[in-house]
Amino acid sequence: MKGYLYSILLSLLFLSCARKEEAQVLQVGVSKAVINPPMGAFIAGDKQNRRFTGALDSLYVKAAVFHDGNESFALVTVDCIGLLYQDLLKIREKVGTMDLAIPFSPENIVISSTHTHAGPDVVGLWGEDYTQSGVDPDYLDFLVLTTAQQIQKAAVNMKTAEVKYGITEHGHQWVANICEEEIDRSVTVLQFEDASGQNIVSLTNFACHPTYLDAVYNEISSDYIAGFYQQMEKELGGEHIFLQGAIGGWIQPVDKGIPYAEVLQRGTGLANAAISALKEGQRLGSPTLNFRKQTIQLPVENEAWKQLAAGGIIQRTITDVVETEVVWFSIGEATFATHPGETAPIFGLQTKALMPEGPKFVLGLGQDALGYIVKPEYFEDQFLPHAHYLTRMSLGKGTGKDLMKVLEELSKKGE
């Protein structure tokens, strides 16, 4: 009798372990679509009243969906100046009506914008002037629907994946903080491979404004990121997602004005750095997913933001506060955090300091595009380089501190 009971206990233990092991299998799906705006649409970035006359390369929305048997979430990148929070809410609403074939909450959608200055105005600031928005409502509806559809397609195309990562630095010759010396040059990349070792999708985090083409061409382009994608696809196959980093305060290419072919070469160089890092990299030890987020109210000290919202140039509610969202999530030892705007490098580095050992990703323009988030010193000393412009495009002096407080709280949840 005792032997029989012992056998049953062993069987139950085996089944429990098997279920646990099964839950640790990571599945990944990916999908992308072209999101080029129509000719004549307003161009975001630099001066107002610029319109597209052609295309140098295509803009994309790319979605990757992750599922470990317990948790799931979607990670999306959009080639645009910066998708606003209210558009993320619309995407979630669309996804909520779709069958994703896996247990999935639309609340678990993370969106980061590449911030290309050769993409359409999706904010409203670059119309003919400040009396009218530059957003095309029909295009924005198309963008919301297309993004939701890519999340659905990615969830249907799931494959079991193994994950490896690489970390390096890049851009010493062409990327600079033109306000001060502080800069984060890190390149962090995750690669998800199928059972045969073929690339499913890679995620690469790097910080630099895609502004080579800003006010130089009137053609659609994802800027140097186009060259990055082309080289990654050529060398690794599969899909690739670029995740913009902390580019505020002002992380820029220093050789703007070079020919388009050389712009693509900048992206090629970034891709080669990511590929080399992967060759020297290592496997993630765990595929477990973790996801947590927090909706927050950020104080608005800048009257211009309130006026732009009141006048309908920016289609969202902005009073003495503005609602936005911050997300902290992980894939095994790889940790990710979103910043709802263009954050100065100091906030990116502080965010990484909160993260445990392993690959660290800071997603600038994540979940929102609330302008520049800079150090308080820029509000106190207008003689600092570009301080007048940066503060004019910021919510206020305390935004960075408020953001870091929320990130610290999220980093400690689940400890």
Automatic annotation (TrEMBL):
The entry's keywords: Hydrolase, Lipid metabolism, Sphingolipid metabolism
EC number: 3.5.1.23
Start and end residues of each Neutral/alkaline non-lysosomal ceramidase N-terminal domain: 49-239
InterPro entries per the UniProt record, alphabetical: Ceramidase_alk, NEUT/ALK_ceramidase_N
Keyword Hydrolase: yes
Record's keyword annotation contains Lipid metabolism: yes
Class of this enzyme: hydrolase
Catalytic activity: an N-acylsphing-4-enine + H2O = sphing-4-enine + a fatty acid
Pfam families reported for this sequence: Ceramidase_alk (PF04734)
Family note: Belongs to the neutral ceramidase family.
Name the UniProt record assigns to this protein: Neutral ceramidase
Organism whose genome encodes this protein: Shivajiella indica
